Input
Amino acid sequence: MGTNGNIIRKKDLGFWQSIYVPEILKGLRLTITQMFKPKFTYEFPEVRFKPPEVFRGRPVLVEENGVERCVACGLCSRVCPALAIEVQAGETELAKERYPIKFEINMVRCIFCGFCEEVCPEEAIIMSNEYLLAFNNQVEAVFGKEKLLKSAAEMRPRLEWLKVNR
Amino acid sequence: MDTTFVLLSIAKIAVVWGGVLTGAAILVLAERRISAWIQNRLGPNRVGPFGLLQSAADVVKLLFKEDIVPTAANRFVHDFAPMISITVALTTFAVIPFGDTIEAFGQNVKLIVADVNIGMLYILALTGIGVYGITLAGWSSNNKYSLLGGLRSSAQLISYELSMGLSIIGVIMISGTLRLDEVVMHQTAPLAHSMQKLPSWLQWLIPVAGWLPSWNVFFQPIGFITFVVASFAETNRLPFDLPEAEPELVGGYHTEYTGMKFGLFFLSEYANMITSSALITTLFLGGWHLPFAESWGLSPFALSLVKIGTFFVKVTILVVFYIIVRWTLPRFRYDQLMRLGWKVMLPLSIANILATGLLLLWWS
Ligand code: SF4
Ligand code: SF4
Output
């Protein structure tokens, strides 16, 4: 109804189309020329994909001057659709007053949605460009603070990108 | 029946089986690599040089897989069906000459496993049996998708067997024999011989096209096209792979097959591809005949090898053609398949027989 009234559907094939053979030859020409085009495949273990900033790899915690930015507000853990984040807050003498005693992301659950990054008030959890995540067991897949912390200098490209695009 | 005959036959069978089975294994890889190239990918290239050992790895994998038979399946028929398929696939090649005679052990050996005088009938009969493998597999699995696949395959085979047989008749009329090696011999003369009989207003064609070999494809272009299309349907290759149409029927007739039993179906599909390419070569493209090869002054033995090589090259080209067509054309709908079979191919091949008959009558 309505919008597609002016779409013309050609149902009747012409003579040359209805005897198939010329059209088949046309199709064959296309596929054969495609065969000799350059390939897109990366030969994986040797050549690796270098993701651009927009890529959502595993989430990491940003570390500045030896301390994580996180104030243990728990918003990320709350918003996570996959219930992958566990935060336990503690008090500190620093200006930020609170810090996470325990911060764990279960990488088997994480779906790389980026909601945690979006909701974080401190820009403390952001998506990195790491995508090589294979585990031998479930325990190995739970990343604690030691694996999650990354220095702000290292995460500079993504942080810059976030400034512009958010 | 003397011992040399038996020994030679065994040797020939070993060569043909070895060739067809290795060919099928390489084809599986070729199919995956060519499809990858068409889609701008690389395809499997890790196992062995250029991925050549991929098929070997696959076979080992298939052998070690668990053989699952559905509880409600008819166990005997379920086991029997892949055997039918592979038997047919491996025996069809017996009547196809893969070279001229060759000098070996002090005698002239015909390079054909079974030198029978009803070669073509034998092939038609065997492809008819081949459909049992698929239909029984579909029926015995006790699965609606398998059954649909099996039924489609029998319907498809009946429709296309007809035009296949009829398009062969044109060739039989020209060469006057059912023996496949004689069909090839008949195609070795230059085209100029048969063009002598052309009416005077067509005589100018002799210098233009007379140098061509008198392969049946030049006499039977319509028959050639219908035969090629029918053999695509016979081997269940796209655009006619309705028995195993993945998006509609899961895996079609082999949905319920696992391990090497599935492997046998897979293998027979590729062996059938080789056999039908060989058949197309033999019937329409001059078999092992290479034009002008006689004039190179080679020794008889070398000449025989060249002829085998020619046959091999022709079959390879056709098989690659099969693969590229698969990755070019979409699958037919069932009603389109039937319409093409009964309303286009059948009348076309009957008209072809009529035209051939009239022309032969007029020429003689
Ligand atoms: S990472 Fe951000 S959102 Fe999550 S607890 Fe820390 S400060 Fe709050
Ligand atoms: S990316 Fe999504 S799923 Fe993963 S930890 Fe963050 S919010 Fe949870």
